[in-house]
Amino acid sequence: MTTTSEATGQKLTAKGLATRERIVRAAAGLIYEQGAQNTSNEQIREAAGVSGSQLTRHFPTKESLVRAVLAWQADNIVTRHQAPELGELDSFAALRRWADSYIASKDMLRGGCTFGSLAAEVVKNEPSHRDAVADGFGRWQALFRRGLSTMRERGELRPEADPTALAHLLTAAFQGGALLDQAAGDSTPLRDALYGALAYVESFAPEG
User: Fold this and answer.
1) Is 88 in a helix, a strand, or coil?
2) In the 8-state DSSP scheme, what is residue 113?
3) What parts of the chain have a pLDDT lower than 70?
């Protein structure tokens, strides 16, 4: 994928790409900790180790940087869901491993879902980012939908199982459980939400 500068529309050199990546990473970390509204350009500049002109060259507005962070976080979510141990998320065992990997994550207690936390904030405060949020969730849900469709084709789920509805269920259980984890400082809500969702998915397994 070719990356361009938001400010100039020009293709970036390797050095420019590295600078842009450093800015996005720094911004993502700060926004995850304190929210987009409470993160200033000066904080981002200092964390990334760039000048004000470098920051403006790549991201002329705060909105353009937030969109880049949304895309970056969505990429990370998709990449994590494609880990070798999860395969194509096309078995009950793989879905259980997916759930367990997040239940055991201390990051969920600290700041919740990296993508979902930012998505919830910007959808309310910056409606213009709704398409970027929808795209991120859509890519995420597509992974579940594809795996569940494969399971249905193999006969591991009954024909009436709806992969799209089940994908919505899994992501909704994850997001709700992650928020409750963050509020409680305890992984029990996420565990209960995900295991409950998985039990419902498993209820579509053929009898016998």
Assistant:
1) coil
2) -
3) 1-10, 109-111, 208
Q: Where are the alpha helices (DSSP H) in 35-154?
A: 41-48, 52-58, 62-81, 92-103, 107-111, 114-125, 130-153
pTM here? Answer: 0.84
- Angle between the 62-81 and 114-125 helix axes, to the nearest 10 degrees? 150
**CB of 126 closer than 8 Å to CB of 31:** no
The rounded distance, in Å, linking the Cα atoms of 84 and 150 is 17
Identity at 65, one-letter amino acid code: L
Half-sphere exposure of 137 (CA within 13 A, CB side): 22
Closest to 31 (Cα-Cα) out of 72, 81, 77: 72
pLDDT tens track for 153-171: 999 999 999 999 999 999 9
Hey, what amino acid is at 163? Answer: P
Cα–Cα separations (whole angstroms), residue 118 to 39, 67, 71? 12, 10, 11
Structure tokens at 170: 């899994």
Query: One-letter amino acid identity for 126?
Result: E
